[in-house]
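Supplementary Methods. Inverse-folding protocol.

Structures were first reduced to a discrete structure-token string of length 323. This string, shown here, constituted the complete conditioning input.
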């Protein structure tokens, strides 16, 4: 056990010690335990595409578990469409991170605090997941709305614990729906306790040099308060897909479907949709073909699904106007 803990951070050694423990259990005839340990080790150590390091062994502080969640990436970079600009930004960030030791030795720091901006449904959340997987770090998502609404009592302490964790453990700390914080700041003027939490969060963001990355995501656009974004080392913009990206995304979503039509003939009608909306359109079309027990997705499945999405949009638009 001592050896196992001593090997923390060195994957090969960790694996060797773990193997040793398993074979000792096998020799002691504890077959069920040995098998279950082996399975756990295989799952934990199987390097996913592009990932290198093992997840850290130190658990996230328990007290924070109400508003922090360990997230397993659902998608890989093959599922993600990025603009050429963002591909470059991310590749640079990854290369910088891999050379962090050398950069630090020269007295320089690496960019580790990122702000993702853009309309909903354009890939901020999944990019945080894919990015964490690519740099081989575990992802912890902070549910800011929950954190802020539970501001009484221990929240300030828990905030401190979260940031202490991210300062010492290599991980990606993801503040999704960061807008909640900006909104809370506006609401906080006459609420002492809330103001304290919001301010301490902003202060922590200012001061932290994360061991891995801190990523915040916001739907706010150009009107983003400079006081917010100057806290970050890099701002990454996620836009709605252009025509070419829409074409690529349709191919991606239909890659496992048999099509009886050419979806790229509909690119004009699909201008200005978000990825999330395009996804619903494609999946809706595929679902119709399944319901009808057809082997092929027909053009009519697609145009109907598109009409559904359009209706949904118009409804949502009306709701927003009245809100
Ligand atoms: N750039 C993208 N490439 C591929 N799929 C995307 C992209 N953006 C969004 N999606 C799809 O839309 C869904 C919602 O995206 P998400 O990352 O949650 O958006 P955001 O966080 O910007 O609101 C994702 O689960 C994914 O299926
Ligand atoms: Mg999101």
């Amino acid at each position: 056990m001592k050896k196992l803990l001593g090997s923390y951070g060195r994957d090969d050694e960790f694996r060797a010690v773990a193997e040793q423990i398993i074979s000792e259990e096998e020799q002691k005839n504890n077959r069920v335990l040995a098998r279950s340990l082996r399975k756990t080790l295989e799952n934990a150590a199987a390097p996913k595409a592009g990932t290198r390091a093992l997840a850290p062994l130190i658990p996230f502080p328990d007290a924070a578990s109400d508003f922090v969640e360990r997230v397993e990436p659902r998608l890989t970079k093959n599922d993600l469409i990025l603009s050429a600009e963002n591909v470059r930004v991310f590749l640079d960030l990854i290369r910088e991170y891999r050379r962090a030791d050398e950069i630090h030795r020269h007295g320089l720091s690496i960019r580790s605090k990122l702000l993702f901006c853009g309309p909903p449904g354009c890939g901020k959340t999944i990019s945080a997941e894919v990015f964490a997987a690519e740099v081989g770090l575990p992802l912890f998502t902070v549910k800011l709305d929950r954190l802020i609404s539970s501001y009484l009592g221990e929240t300030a302490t828990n905030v401190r614990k979260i940031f202490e964790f991210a300062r010492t453990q290599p991980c990606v700390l993801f503040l999704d729906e960061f807008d909640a914080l900006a909104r809370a700041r506006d609401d906080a003027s006459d609420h002492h306790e809330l103001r304290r939490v919001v301010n301490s969060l902003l202060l922590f963001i200012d001061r932290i040099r994360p061991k891995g990355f801190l990523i915040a995501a916001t739907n706010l656009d150009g009107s983003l308060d400079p006081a917010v974004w100057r806290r970050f080392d890099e701002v990454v913009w996620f836009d709605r897909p252009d025509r070419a990206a829409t074409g690529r995304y349709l191919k991606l979503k239909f890659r496992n479907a048999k099509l009886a039509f050419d979806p790229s003939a509909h690119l004009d009608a699909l201008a200005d949709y978000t990825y999330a909306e395009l996804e619903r359109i494609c999946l809706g079309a595929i679902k119709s073909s399944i319901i009808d027990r057809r082997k092929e997705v027909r053009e009519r499945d697609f145009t109907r699904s598109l009409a559904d999405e359009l209706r949904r949009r118009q409804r949502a638009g009306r709701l927003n106007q009245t809100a």
